[in-house]
Amino acid sequence: MPVGTVRVLTWNIHGTFGLNPRFDLARVVALIDRWDPEIVALQEVDSRRDREAGIDPFEYLQRELGEHGIGARSIITDDGDYGQMLISRWPLSGTVIHDLSYPEREPRRAIESTVETPHGTLHFVATHLGLSIHERRAQTAKLSAIAGEGAGTTIMAGDFNDWLWVGSVRAALSLVLPACTSFRTFPSFSPLLRLDRIYCRPVDALVTAFTDTEARHISDHLPVIADIRVVKAQSEG
Which residues lie across from 5 on neighbouring strands? Predict the structure, then answer.
């Protein structure tokens, strides 16, 4: 991995319930560990279907993948919880969970945090957007505001559910986060749609990116992995 960079992985793991019927979280962890990411954004973490095994996926994934993390549980029921996670090898500070929910649609969240890396601080946002174009348009406006226009490195990662060009998430976010990955990630066995992305600023901070097709045995999404250069903000000297 290039000097002065961090490795980020984003992955929607919901397909574990269809392609990995026993919900073997060890397989999820093993694939992630193969690439040794320092920051991980996971979507569709779901404890509602694993109660009998006595495992809370939020706790398990946090314990196995990083020293620091936050879970945004967008759905909480008596049978368990559902949401997303941001997990980091390094400390997180100033964390805010933003409500991106749209009327009469599934609750959505964005996790915003500052990651204290050895190369300097970076601004990170993990998210999972909705399925309708009007919903995503409203959510993208909020995300653009969250991303801001700071001089240091900002990363936004997740499942953006963005398969249309008209009013697309990419067109809007590229105004504030000009670099992004562009892999076809869904459905994992024959990827057609570029739903899962990593965006960042400045434009030259994205050093390299790739995916892992072995994930097709675990989820209906492929993960996206990227090495991103940390650019210090002026206040860090």
Answer: 229
Condensed to tens digits (0 to 9), the pLDDT of residues 184-215 reads 999 999 999 999 999 999 999 999 999 999 99
Domain spans in the chain, listed from the N-terminal domain onward: 5-231
Q: How far apart are CA 54 and CA 42, in angstroms?
A: 21
Check pLDDT > 90 for residue 168.
Answer: no
* Residue 95 CB-half CA count within 13 A: 18
Residues 128-149: what's their mean pLDDT?
A: 94
- Does residue 6 contact residue 39 with C-beta atoms inside 8 Å? yes
Distance CA 172, CA 178 (A): 10
d(CA 133, CA 161): 9
Identify the weakest region by mean pLDDT among 42-56, 81-95, 116-130: 42-56
Contact 169, 138 (CB under 8 A): no
- Tokens found for residue 152: 């240091």
Alpha-carbon gap, residue 202 to 28, rounded angstroms = 31
- Secondary-structure breakdown of the chain: helix, strand, coil percentages, each rounded to the nearest 5: 25, 40, 40
CATH architecture of 5-231: 4-Layer Sandwich (3.60)
Token representation of residue 179: 């670099």
Average pLDDT, the chain: 90
What's this model's pTM, rounded to 2 decimal places?
A: 0.93
Q: What is the pLDDT of residue 49?
A: 62
